[in-house]
Amino acid sequence: MSPEEQDFQLDDKFHDECGLFGVWNHVEASNVVYLGLYALQHRGQESAGIAATDGHAFHVEKAMGWVADVFSPERLRRLPGRRAMGHVRYSTAGTSSLRNAQPITGTTAHGPVAIAHNGNLVNADELRRGLEADGAVFQSSSDTEVILHLLARAEGGTLVDQLARALNQVKGAYTLLLLTPDSIIAVRDPSGFRPMTLGKLEDSWVLASETCALDLMEAKIVRDVEPGEIVLVDDAGLQSFKPFRPQERLQCVFEYVYFARPDSVLWGRNVHVVRKALGHQLAREHPVTADLVIPVPDSGVGAALGFAEEAGLPYDSGLVRNHYVGRTFIEPKQGIRHFGVKVKLNPNREVLAGKRVVVVDDSIVRGTTSRKIVKMVRQAGAREVHVRISSPPIQWPCYYGIDTPTRKELIGSSHEVAEIQKYLSADSLGYLSLDGMLKATGNDPAHFCHACFTGQYRIGFDAGDVAQLKLFDS
Q1: What residues does each domain of the chain span?
Q2: Which of 4, 135, 169, 188 is the most core-located residue (most Cβ within 10 A)?
Q3: Is residue 345 within 8 Å of 322, Cβ to Cβ?
Q4: Which letter does DSSP use for residue 256 in this model?
Q5: Does the 15-247 domain belong in CATH 3.90.550.10?
Q6: What is the pLDDT of residue 328?
Q7: Kindly report the CA angle at 196 between 281 and 206, in degrees rounded to 5?
Q8: 32/67 Cα distance (integer angstroms)
Q9: Cβ atoms of residues 224 and 249 within 8 Å
Q10: Contact 45, 431 (CB under 8 A)
Q11: Residue 288 φ then ψ, to 5°
Q12: How far apart are the first and last CA of the chain?
């Protein structure tokens, strides 16, 4: 990214790769999936797709864009059947193009299948080269197609057997949905990096990346799909298989910090409640004399509320977000580039003027947006601007399904906190500690991946791989 592009960066955040939603045995299956994807739009905004089946043929519709833009009533009518699944995508592996939109379809020894994936395979390139040497022809650059080719070549008496053999060859993070003419299948990798929830809607089964999508249609939450579990639903009911060797649990802590919707329940805890707990811990670790606490909306809201409660300070909306700015906002000419972040966030002068303000955000990636926010708050009349971040400094890229910059673009990888504070022009800067963050989740700290903060890549790489990665991204 050029300095000019960084200067106009509207959304200096990590991005999750995908959201998944599936339904079995519903008279309006494709419409239910459409609603489910709508609730998961925050997990991917580049493309959206739905595959449906009437028990015979597959019907697939997908395009670039947001769910509401991709699916018209006419397009949904082209998706008949009582079984369907869908996908929203933000690219990590593979380019941003229609050919990488999902679900994708193929054929196995047990018949046709559609597949969609949330995650990232760290050995996808190696597997792809081997498959191409064996005659495989790829239609896309996504690692989801690698899984499809492995599945097509795997031996097994059932599709579940094939799937287990195929996935035993991959390293990394994957949550999958597969649709066949007579079943829907969900899989979580043995470390459980990404979430997947199972629910019931009257006589229908539903599967979703987050519980907020089940809430939308008033489905009953049954349970999480467990790490290393394959769940199959067909006319005979639900079956569970656990064919993989157990591995250490490595749930992505950034799901709590930023990715997941605040009304979702993730790994047993409401996301908003966890974010408030992060804010409480942040206020204990980095107290400050101030008049007011404001969030960077929307992801900073929960932590800011918690910080204000713990510090005994007033909370207010000092920054107003324009929710109608998409990622494809047309970049302005150089002469008005300085408006930048104000397209998305605007300070409320009546709230900020004359105050010592604490600005709470979930993370700092490159630092460009945070710097502009501090400047805006000062220009709105704040006497002091203190920045508090509800996660540790981000120092390493993610290889498990998050779109992240290179390490040299991460301001936390090459600058001490005091240097970052100076760059932001803030009166003070405080990051939540790693221990404090993990404690605030209310889960076992050992069950989380925190490689983006620590560089501890515990799955998919041996010591030499990690050393090479760190050298490559330095």
Answers
A1: 15-247, 264-472
A2: 188
A3: yes
A4: I
A5: no
A6: 42
A7: 130
A8: 13
A9: no
A10: no
A11: -155, 145
A12: 16
Question: Which pair of tokens denotes residue 119?
Answer: 């995650």
Q: Is it the case that residue 160 has pLDDT exceeding 60?
A: yes
| Residue 15 tokens, joined | 């991005």
Provide the pairing of β-strand 83-89 with 58-64. Answer: unpaired
pLDDT reported for residue 107? 94
Size (the chain), residues: 474
Q: Which two tokens stand for residue 386?
A: 């203190």
Architecture of domain 264-472: 3-Layer(aba) Sandwich (3.40)
Looking at residue 223, its amino acid is R
Between the CA of residue 398 and those of 118, 132, 450, what are the distances in Å? 14, 26, 9
Give the residue with greater pLDDT, 295 vs 398.
Answer: 295
35 contacts: CB under 8 Å, gap ≥ 6 = 213, 216, 217
Tell me the C-alpha distance between 243 and 245, whole Å: 7
For residue 138, the SS3 value is: coil
Closest to 110 (Cα-Cα) out of 144, 66, 76, 154: 154
Residues acting as catalytic residues: 18
CA-atom Rg of the chain in angstroms:
23
> Cα separation of 242 and 265, whole Å?
24
> Distance (Å, rounded) from C-alpha 459 to C-alpha 451?
10
For residue range 355-386, what is the model confidence (pLDDT) as tens digits? Answer: 999 999 999 999 999 999 999 999 999 999 99
Q: What gap in Å lies between CA 198 and CA 220, rounded to an integer? A: 9
Question: What's the mean pLDDT when you consider all of the chain?
Answer: 91
Percentage of residues in the chain having pLDDT higher than 90: 82
Which 3 state secondary structure label does DSSP give 84?
strand
- Whether the pTM exceeds 0.70: the reply is yes
